[in-house]
Amino acid sequence: MNPRQAFFACLERSPPALFEAALWMAAEHDPAVEPLVILHDFKWLAQRINLGMPTLPPDELGQPLLRRMNDLGFAQDDYTPLRPAAALLDKVLQRKRGQPLALGLIALELARRLDIPMVGVNFPGHFLLRVPGTDHLLDPCGGRRLYPNDCRELLQRQYGPNLKLQADHLHTAEPREILQRLSRNLRQLHLSNDDHLAALVDAERVLELGNASAADYLARASLYQRLDCPNAERFDLEHALMLSEDPIQRLRLTERLGHLPPNSVVH
Question: 0.90 exceeded by the pTM?
Answer without folding.
Answer: yes
